[in-house]
Amino acid sequence: MKKDDTILIVGAGLCGSLLALRLGQRGFTVNVYEKRPDLRKVDISAGRSINLAFSDRGNKGMKLVDLEEKVKELCIPMNGRMIHDKEGNTFLSNYSGRDYEYINSISRGDLNALLLDEAEKHPKVNVHFNTSCKKVDFENTKAYFKNYNTKSEFTQTADVIIATDGAGSALRKSYYLERKFLFSFSQNYLTHGYKELSILPTENGGYKTYKNALHIWPRGDFMIIALPNLDGSFTVTLFLSYEEGEYNFNNLTNPEIVTEFFKKEFPDALEIMPNLVEDFFENPTAPLGTIKCSPWHYKGNTLLMGDSAHAIVPFYGQGMNASFEDVVEFDAVLDEEHESWEAVFKAYQKRRKKDTDAIADLAIDNFHEMKDHVANPIFQEKRKLEMALEDQFPKDYSSKYSLVTFNEHIGYREAMIKGRAQDEAILNMIADGDIEIKDNMSKEVLADALKRVQEVTNTILKHDRIAELKE
Amino acid sequence: MKKDDTILIVGAGLCGSLLALRLGQRGFTVNVYEKRPDLRKVDISAGRSINLAFSDRGNKGMKLVDLEEKVKELCIPMNGRMIHDKEGNTFLSNYSGRDYEYINSISRGDLNALLLDEAEKHPKVNVHFNTSCKKVDFENTKAYFKNYNTKSEFTQTADVIIATDGAGSALRKSYYLERKFLFSFSQNYLTHGYKELSILPTENGGYKTYKNALHIWPRGDFMIIALPNLDGSFTVTLFLSYEEGEYNFNNLTNPEIVTEFFKKEFPDALEIMPNLVEDFFENPTAPLGTIKCSPWHYKGNTLLMGDSAHAIVPFYGQGMNASFEDVVEFDAVLDEEHESWEAVFKAYQKRRKKDTDAIADLAIDNFHEMKDHVANPIFQEKRKLEMALEDQFPKDYSSKYSLVTFNEHIGYREAMIKGRAQDEAILNMIADGDIEIKDNMSKEVLADALKRVQEVTNTILKHDRIAELKE
């Protein structure tokens, strides 16, 4: 690899834009091809993931390219989950017992536009829109494109091709179909799909419900959630089975039944969603899939990054954050001064894949946590203890959620292993009556609880290692 | 569905032949298309899985079609694993403490031929060879074929198409490529491949090493195994990484290095394998993959069964057994008298998939157990205790291996959950010094050990359920 190599990036979404910006900063010649029109000129929101959760791992990417302050202006802090029950009662469950730990709602379009603007400031970075990648000849580092405006087809070679073209990646499809090497691959869909709806602002642009939370209406087998936007609106997402249960996407086919469903299950939401029926029938229903694969690269020619390598379900709010962290990790590998692109790609996958596998699994765990467990008394007791521990012993305890979301110096896999053991420890201590959780526990009582939680957690971790014959 | 429906089966391997036979017995009209020549007329062994492990779950399939006695004649009992260390020392580790529990080595070709012979005795069952399925139009229940002899291409419709065409299934490929429904799919390769070798019989047709065992030479990162054949030979399989370690498939490129590798790692095997180099360079190196997918069926038109739905790695000796059990389970669903093929297929997948997912995961566990753990002292202590418990309390204890292999009345998933908890319990009791394992433990000592193993196992199972918020 040479300092002036030409890099072709397929896809100018969040990951591709950040990657182009960072590689531009490092002095590479970068050509980016994006199938959609320039989102700074055309409104291309299609009722799908208008806003996203942005948190500490994503912010590492913004620090890397010196955009932390500019991105902060786009953020709406969400301090916790606002849980809505069927009677319309609400309670706020903070994400952390530490006040300074929270996640943010951010507009996908605004953030993507900012990254594109910054990338294009580098004269050696060029972004081409309306140009779709059809396939990649990875033996010859050559991509096949079609321009939607001119209808012309052309090929482009480069020293390296990096595909950040999302869950439907053309490069990944070429890896699979060409069968030139052993390519492990999985696509797994949940039984549930999703549909985006909205809560519009008040007449004077205010928020119709509490602004600084991620709202959840958990109903066991399905749920709606809502994230705030800067204009006073909320983007609402319904997660629902395609075919199971009394109400499902297959049978919500007319305005009456949709309204009946919301009246019965989400009455307080329905009150502030007069536009429900219109949204419901205008916006698409989309599937929820997880994609894993390996290897991510072919020799030193091509590499998958972001969703193209590891698409995940949205329930941990980590999709974008994981993709930004990909760029941070890739950048760190570039600093190691490997002798070839192949060595860079190998080192990157070795360092990174265990963590993207972990966040994929954690995201599915959180699907069940959000739609179901948050309404479970034993789960709520665990959260109460964890909040108190994080508040009283901010340096000594982090819940699984905190480990994943706010401990960006450790990888997702380490967070998963420790976080799951802690959850198992606390849930079992509660179930076995080994710990009693009250409001306003004294610091002495909490100190004792912390010690015992740590002991039980360590025993679980040790026993797991022994069971795997690793000790 | 009607009693005289026409069923098209793609693939006349072990699963397809048994299915054709059973459906013939039930009175259906059955047309089977197989891409290879008739193995009863042409020798088509290609250095790949010449013999297989046949055990109790597979035998359920033979009982179903009344072939148990005929199959027994093809079987060579293997009572345990004969472990060979680097110095040539051997020790036998039985599969069970119950004398009547053992597995068998059986010839794939002989068994397949028997099933074909029996299937063809039914006048409404017809088997067509040299006819490859190219794709399936599952909307219209139509399969596309090419005959290798006449080079002609044709299509065939039926009331139902069942694909038993193995890991490379044409129907599964059509499900994936057509994208007409959400199809979850995974193909995952191990870092290791395999190559078949052989130990030839003695001059007078005897066995060069102990006949009634599955021989293993475990070396941590790689291994060879050997299974006996009726003619006095053993089929040997080398499992080795493609690219990692001092010796791997990528660098074993000449006779000298192959011989050096065997001399160093498997000296006692090399002594009885004068034909090693010839075998090594004549036989292919093949990958080891796991395939899972869902749904297995499209409406009431088409269904995947056997390896086409769930190909697994060979380390539990359950691939064929699982496919035969598929036929038994499918037959049981047919007895339930559902109103449509769609209802049959749905009920079959609901009942069966959890178990084939489990055996896929168990088979990967056993890869690590066979190449590595069997040589681990703490693992060997566990096995010693389990043998003694099975011997002294045959009705009260079954190891994970026994649950999977010899407890054919419970499903793979139940066997996995209970077996893993038992393993965790015993390994941790040994590691924590909570149990001492000696030779010739008295019945009283063993009774106490059994009670404590059961208690710890039940606690683990309970804690797991609590951690999943299922209690």
TrEMBL record, chains A, B:
Gene3D superfamilies assigned: FAD/NAD(P)-binding domain (3.50.50.60)
GO biological process: anthranilate metabolic process; kynurenine metabolic process; L-tryptophan catabolic process; NAD+ biosynthetic process; quinolinate biosynthetic process
E.C. numbers: 1.14.13.9
Reactions the enzyme catalyzes: L-kynurenine + NADPH + O2 + H(+) = 3-hydroxy-L-kynurenine + NADP(+) + H2O
Source species, domain of life: Bacteria
Keywords: FAD, Flavoprotein, Monooxygenase, NADP, Oxidoreductase, Pyridine nucleotide biosynthesis
FAD-binding domain: residues covered: 6-358
InterPro entries: FAD-bd, FAD/NAD-bd_sf, Kynurenine_monooxygenase
GO molecular function: FAD binding; kynurenine 3-monooxygenase activity
Cofactor list: FAD
PANTHER family assigned to the protein according to its UniProt record, in alphabetical order: KYNURENINE 3-MONOOXYGENASE (PTHR46028)
Function: Catalyzes the hydroxylation of L-kynurenine (L-Kyn) to form 3-hydroxy-L-kynurenine (L-3OHKyn). Required for synthesis of quinolinic acid.
Family: Belongs to the aromatic-ring hydroxylase family. KMO subfamily.
Protein name: Kynurenine 3-monooxygenase
Species of origin: Spongiivirga citrea
